[in-house]
Write a structure and sequence with these properties.
6 helices; Arc Repressor Mutant, subunit A; mainly alpha; 82 residues
Length: 82
Amino acid sequence: MLMPKRYPPEVREKAVRLALDRLEEYGSAYAAAHAIGPRVDVHPETLRVWIVAALKRAAEKPAAWTRLSGPSWSGCGGRTGS
């Protein structure tokens, strides 16, 4: 039997955002989750899993500037009225 979702999406988003904003300060997802989790009423291990998942998703996405490079980008803009 699956457990019901306990945390609303808004709580998850806020908790992850707070943790990611302070991740360098704490040095690890574990430390950030244990410091921030109780403040936002989220179990630290749950928050740690969310942080790791968010970091993984961010690593899988290409950087914004890489989406702009390529053949279609080189011909855009800068047209003169010839």
